[in-house]
Design a protein that fits this description.
Keywords: Signal. By secondary structure, the chain is mostly beta strands. It has one helix and eight strands; from the N terminus they run H-E-E-E-E-E-E-E-E.
Length: about 190
C-alpha cells in the first residue's frame, strides 16, 4: 500500500510539473528511441537461486516540453528476461511490456545543438506477455517502479543511460521485482 501511495504522489507531482511547463513554454519536441536492456529479477527468497538476467530491447516514442526544466512522457515496447532456479526446477521468465515513464528533468548544459540532462520519475508497466511461474504462482499484469535517466542530446540525436528500480512485485509469492539498466539512442523532431 505504501508503494501505491508513493507512486500516486509521484505521478500527480510529475503531471503537475509537466502541465505547468507545457503551458508556459512553446518548446515541444517529439522523438523515437530504441535501445538494449540488461535485467535482473530481485527476490528475497533463499529458494530462488542461479539468477542470470538476459539482454532485451526497447523501442518507443517520446515527447519533451520545456527548456532547462522539462517534462518527458514516453510510450515504449520493452522486452526482458531472467533465468533462475526455484526448488529443483529451472525457469526462464520472458516479459513483453508496454511501458510508460513520466519523467521530469533538468538540463545541466543547454545549448542549441548540445545538452546534458538528468531526469527521474515513475515508470509504469503493463505486461502483454507473462511467463508461466513455478508452482502455480502468478506474475502480475501491472507493475510500477522509479526511473532515473542521464542523457546527452547532440543535434537531433539523443543518447540515454537509465536505471529502472522495481517498486512493486512482479510475482508476490516469489517476491520478485524487476530492475532494468538500459542504454538507448533516439532521434528528436523539433
Amino acid at each position: 500500500m505504501k508503494t501505491i501511495k508513493l507512486l500516486a504522489t509521484a505521478i500527480v507531482v510529475t503531471l503537475g510539473i509537466g502541465t505547468a511547463k507545457a503551458q508556459s513554454s512553446s518548446d515541444l519536441e517529439f522523438g523515437i528511441k530504441a535501445g538494449v536492456n540488461f535485467s535482473t529479477l530481485k527476490t528475497g527468497l533463499n529458494a530462488v537461486s542461479d539468477k542470470s538476467g538476459k539482454i532485451g530491447f526497447n523501442a518507443g516514442i517520446f515527447a519533451r516540453t520545456g527548456s532547462t526544466l522539462f517534462f518527458q512522457p514516453e510510450l515504449n515496447y520493452v522486452t526482458f528476461s531472467d533465468k533462475y532456479r526455484f526448488n529443483s526446477g529451472a525457469y526462464e521468465a520472458k516479459f513483453r511490456q508496454i511501458n510508460l515513464p513520466l519523467l521530469v528533468g533538468y538540463k545541466l548544459l543547454n545549448t542549441a545543438d548540445f545538452n546534458v540532462r538528468l531526469a527521474a520519475g515513475p515508470d509504469l508497466s503493463y505486461n502483454l506477455k507473462k511467463p508461466i511461474a513455478p508452482g502455480g504462482f502468478k506474475y502480475q499484469d501491472f507493475t510500477a517502479g522509479g526511473l532515473v535517466d542521464a542523457g546527452v542530446d547532440v543535434g537531433n540525436l539523443t543518447f540515454d543511460a537509465r536505471y529502472s528500480l522495481g517498486l512493486s512485485k512482479f510475482n508476490k509469492q516469489l517476491g520478485q521485482k524487476a530492475n532494468i539498466f538500459s542504454l538507448g539512442v533516439g532521434f528528436k523532431f523539433q
